[in-house]
């Protein structure tokens, strides 16, 4: 799966990592619903760090269709809310 982190670039991520990422995504969703700004910020950074850790960066000159688009690390709670689906940021 190709994942884009807005403002950073793309990584290739094995589908097998989605379960691990969904745990962070679920936590992020709970924090957003509760209006927990500091928790939201901490979990968003943890989620993006995990994607960077588990993913393999694509070359900067590569532009592949992204199957998943994640917000930038400095995105606001409102900006992330606009990106959410019923499943959160990560489907499943």
Q: Which SSEs are present, and which pair or pack?
A:
Layout: E1 2-5, E2 9-12, H1 18-33, H2 37-54, E3 56-57, E4 68-70, H3 77-83
Helix pairs in contact: 1-2
Distance between the termini: 14 Å
Percent of residues in beta strands: 5-15%
Order of helices and strands: EEHHEEH
Structural class: alpha+beta
What does the average pLDDT come to?
Answer: 89
Number of strands: 4
Specify the biggest β-sheet: 4 strands, mixed
Helix content: 40-55%
Number of domains: 1
| Residue runs with pLDDT of under 50 for 5 or more positions | none
- Number of helical stretches of at least 4 residues: 3
Biggest sheet, strands in spatial order?
3-2-1-4
| Rounded Rg | 13 Å
Tertiary shape: globular
Protein name: F0F1 ATP synthase
InterPro entries: PspA-assoc_dom (IPR054437)
Account of the 3D structure:
This protein has about 90 residues and is of the alpha+beta class. The protein has one domain (about 1-85). It has 3 helices and 4 strands, in the order E-E-H-H-E-E-H. It has helices at about 20-35, 35-55, 75-85, and strands spanning about 1-5, 10, 55, 70. A 4-stranded mixed sheet has the order 3-2-1-4, with helices on one face. The radius of gyration is 13 Å and the shape is globular. The two termini are about 15 Å apart.
What is the structure about, briefly put?
With 92 residues, the protein is an alpha+beta fold.
Provide key terms for this protein.
alpha+beta; 92 residues; four-stranded mixed β-sheet; PspA-assoc_dom; globular
